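Review this fold:
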Amino acid sequence: MSDILNHIDAGVMTLTFNRLDKKNSITSDMYAALADGIEQAKSDASVRVVVIQGHESIFSAGNDIGDFLNKPPSTQDSPVFRFLRGIATFEKPLIAAVAGPAVGIGTTLLFHCDLFMPVTMRRFPCPSSTWACALKRRPACWCRACSATTALQRRCCWANLSLPKPPKKWAWSTVCCRPWR
């Protein structure tokens, strides 16, 4: 059975993490399947929306560290970069149905969604954002929602996601970027 299930029904493509024994931690092969699914949705006019979902007990535990160490992304064509470029430039509605924890890349991909529906969680742990702040580097692409134009919209986005507020010295444009556009 595949670690990513791809199903299309009535114009909705559903990509489902299916690696519950490893808490849906994402491998290189899973990134490839996700990237292929996003590409298929881009080119298929009958697909009007894409939903990414996990299991009712966990959305994703982030990267599979063992797989990531054994197959590190070495070029811009590696599966992880293909997937991230795919969701960052995706023109159709992208929705995440989230039940349980979303950790690391599981959180990061939520920022690229037009809508995400958290069901049972209160926090979105993202170790890399902590490291980025500690290293005084900007976090990777934040989100479509953060392309908000007013200060009120930006504050609401941060508040709703239960994230720490960015340091005052950061200009919003350094936090919120979409380098592939």
Notes: The CA atoms of residues 8 and 14 lie 6 Å apart. The mean pLDDT is 76. The domain at 4-127 is CATH 3.90.226.10 (2-enoyl-CoA Hydratase; Chain A, domain 1).
